[in-house]
Amino acid sequence: MFRRVDPHLIEFPADDPDRALRFWRGLLGVPVEPRGAGEGRGWQTHGDAPAIGIHERGRGPGDRFSLPYFAVDDLPGALEQVAELGGGVVHPGESFAVCRDSEGTPFGLSAASG
């Protein structure tokens, strides 16, 4: 069990990033800005969590669906627990990982900062 599992980010892949940015900026009424170092590619909100992220759709495991990401204190331990509980790790990483729950639903985990 992990001490911290916070909703951290909801990521939306986009076929047309400009169109997606107009949509989410208009709907949320908040800035969606280019990502900084360590945040990956694309754009996201900053401030109140969970952040909303947008990136150009690709062919990777995180590029087909919107994904909620959860911040965890121990990413390697969380990935082990995903497997122990009957889920799967689709794309492991050092800072971010894409997983599936026991029912096949995709979600992401990210290493908590601080």
List the helices and strands and how they pair.
Blueprint: E1 5-14, H1 17-28, E2 33-34, E3 43-44, E4 51-56, E5 67-72, H2 75-84, E6 88-91, E7 96-100, E8 106-111
Q: Please count the beta strands (DSSP E, at least 2 residues each).
A: 8
Helical amount:
10-25%
What is the N-to-C succession of helices and strands?
EHEEEEHEEE
Mean pLDDT score = 85
Largest sheet report? 8 strands, mixed
Taking strands numbered 1, 2, ... along the chain, how are they ordered across the largest sheet? 2-3-4-1-5-8-7-6
Are there runs of 5+ residues with pLDDT below 50, and where?
none
Q: How much beta, percentage-wise?
A: 35-45%
Structural class: alpha+beta
Task: Write down the overall geometry.
Answer: globular
Distance between the termini: 19 Å
Radius of gyration: 14 Å
Can you offer a commentary on this structure?
The structure is a single chain. This protein is of the alpha+beta class and 114 residues long. 19% of the residues lie in helices and 36% in strands. The protein contains 2 helices and 8 strands; from the N terminus they run βαββββαβββ. The protein has helices at 17-28, 75-84, and strands at residues 5-14, 33-34, 43-44, 51-56, 67-72, 88-91, 96-100, 106-111. An 8-stranded mixed beta sheet has the order 2-3-4-1-5-8-7-6. A hairpin with a 5-residue loop joins β7 (96-100) and β8 (106-111). The longest helix has 12 residues, at 17-28. 24% of the residues are buried.
